[in-house]
């Protein structure tokens, strides 16, 4: 009871007025990281479409879709997404000194984990909605892939 009132007053006066601006500042790198995940998925699926349009090979298409499933675990391809979030390191340093925020690396790592999880969900959903083995008309495959991609991105 004796600590509650001073603690509430301290939060109301020294922290709460800054929360909106802090959140906006932190969301920049987080949003750009998730936008990069979206762009990477879009680019990879577009490459599958282009490859299929060149080869018209269903077996190669299946192979490409299988490779897409490994995208979340491909550190080289996911690296540009993760780098966007590394900007949080600088932003959180200021918060660390002002508000005693610790475990900055944990915040960045969790954000990157969520990015990987988002990519896992995207490729899994893509695979579930598009199964190359169920495609009877190879003329419509590229169109179907594009529709599935747009559905996943939605």
Automatic annotation (TrEMBL):
Regarding protein family, the annotation reads: Belongs to the Niban family.
Q: Residue ranges of the Niban 1/2/3 domain?
A: 9-154
Name of the molecule in the record = NIBAN protein
The record ties this protein, via Pfam families, to: Niban2 (PF26086)
Report which gene this protein is encoded by.
Answer: Fam129a
InterPro entries named in the record: Niban-like, Niban_1/2/3_dom
């Amino acid at each position: 009871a004796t600590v509650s009132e001073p603690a509430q007053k301290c939060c109301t006066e020294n922290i709460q007025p800054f929360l909106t601006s802090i959140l906006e500042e932190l969301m920049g790198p987080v949003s750009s990281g998730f936008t990069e995940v979206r762009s990477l998925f879009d680019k990879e699926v577009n490459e599958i479409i282009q490859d299929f349009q060149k080869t018209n090979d269903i077996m190669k298409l299946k192979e490409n879709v299988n490779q897409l499933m490994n995208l979340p675990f491909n550190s080289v391809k996911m690296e540009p997404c993760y780098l966007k979030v590394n900007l949080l390191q600088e932003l959180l340093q200021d918060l660390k000194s002002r508000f005693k925020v610790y475990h900055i690396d944990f915040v960045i790592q969790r954000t990157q984990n969520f990015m990987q999880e988002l990519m896992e969900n995207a490729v899994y959903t893509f695979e579930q909605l598009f199964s190359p083995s169920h495609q009877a008309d190879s003329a419509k495959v590229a169109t179907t892939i594009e529709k599935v991609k747009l559905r996943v991105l939605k």
